[in-house]
EamA domain-containing protein
Amino acid sequence: MNEPVSIRKGIVLMLLSVVFFSVNCLIIRWVGLFASVDGWMSSFTRGLAGTIFVIAVYSRGRGLHLSHLRKPMIILRGFLGVTTITMLYFTLIHLGAGRAMVINLTYPLFGAIIAALVLKEKPHPATLGLLILAMIGLGLFFSESLQNATFGGYDLLGLAGAVLAGATVVVIRKLTQTETAPTIYSGQCIITLLVTTPLAMPSFGETTPFIWFLLMLGGGIVAYGQILITKGFYHLDVAQGSAIQMLIPVLTGAGGFVLFSESFSIIEIIGAILTLFATWRITIAPRAVLATSAPDVAIPQDTTKESCGTTIPPKKTPIR
């Protein structure tokens, strides 16, 4: 069965992934506050849960090709993934759920820039102005912490993670031309296990069964969310798909307020709104160009790929 490219379907997949990622972030924040679980342990359980999930659901001819895990691009995606995930988890624990996610969600800006340079995705003329607006918003978001000298290492760690996350999205986008979503994700999970096991082992004995359950639950939730986001990038370009992820700090921030009494100042809220608004507009602008474009044109045949065992046709101008 051939699957046409559909912006609507891509948006639905991305929105579902937003919900799953937000729930996982709140779990990581909770165990970090009340169970003294660090980022290494959280990353390890995410890798473990993800590996179990992807093998259970997608092995035996259902889209998982373990023989492809030796490919350099999949290995690169794995190392980028474990690095950005661990950075995010440490900032979730030390900065708070809402603040960590606002910083992390600047990655679409970097993803759009990197995609324009690496994938030759032509940005909309308004994108440059929107990127500038987003950076102004980010400056406002950090202004009070800079003035009060509370801007620290974890803020820098969060920004570095956002840059690497932008690069990760571009690698995923490139891989979706030739690899299935489960294969791409399994590479991240297995490399995460290899990297984090020796660093997480000291915490194994101190972690209660209930905390293990929460961590594995969060890992399972985000595993399915990762599959959704990878599939979503088949239907959306980097700027569009990444921009929808801006809803994560909204949901996560609301959860942080209710569960952990986290809050933002007025200036921080204004900065966050500007950044997220600019990111949202980045996803709207390219669609205006597509709406007035020429008739559908197929990408050359060698970009055909499989997804979960089903052959997917060459990518065409999206259906709305």
Q: What stands out?
A: The chain has one domain: 7-292.
